[in-house]
Amino acid sequence: DRTVLTNNTDIAESADGVIATTPIFGGNSLVATAFTGSGPHLVSFRPKSFVAESAGGAAAPVVAAPIPDLGIAGSAKVLAVHVEASSGPKLDEAAIVVSGGRGLGEAGKYSLVEELATLLKGAPGASRAIVDAGWVPYSYQVGQTGKVVKPTVYIAAGISGATQHMVGMKGSKNIIAINKDKEAPIFGVADLGIVGDVHKVLPQLIELLKSRG
Out of 53-57, 137-141, 208-212, which region has the weakest mean confidence (pLDDT)? Predict the structure, then answer.
């Protein structure tokens, strides 16, 4: 048996061996795990946990790892295969994320979020409220029970700022909030706040971007 640790954000060597850091409880606490065995160990990381270093144009070597027949493949059965269509960057890897919430009013208005995200070459996201309402798939959800994102720019449109949502986007470098309620909690973490109706602000942003080509 080998050690497998997922969803880590850091790894380091110490006198106790290799130590991996894993966030829990929405990132409010960290668990440090030391590997005491000889390995090999398998460790995976959250997207954007590290800044990728240049390979200098050199191709990475490909190592073939033979997988022995474990004799259990016959007990597994594929019931269905579902592939979601996607034309832009992945939500947890995008440099720009545009998320929509209940403030959009109805499912049909989410198209404004998608259009703005496309024009910015970003990814659309969503609050748990509109995912639970069936407006968009779960894969769009940002928050404690969804994706944790750390884009350069995060635009929250019609999102009030529930704690479980902010856990998923508080690591963003620049947060822009659009909400007609000036007391909305989202403004407490925003670098730029726009107090206004998303039904007016989003179309204006879209038209501005289109006019600039």
Answer: 53-57
Interatomic CA distance for residues 116 and 111, integer angstroms: 9
Query: How many other β-carbons are positioned within 10 Å of the β-carbon of residue 158?
Result: 30
Predicted TM-score (pTM) of this structure: 0.70
Give CA angle at 151 (209, 42), nearest 5°. Answer: 145
pLDDT higher than 90, residue 52: no
Beta strands across the sheet bearing 29-34? 10-14, 17-24, 29-34
Which CATH number applies to 96-211: 3.40.50.1220, 3.40.50.460, 3.40.50.720, 3.30.160.150? 3.40.50.1220
- Residue with structure tokens 């065995």? 37
Distance separating alpha carbons of residues 160 and 178, to the nearest angstrom: 9
Q: Are strands 17-24 and 29-34 parallel, antiparallel or unpaired?
A: antiparallel
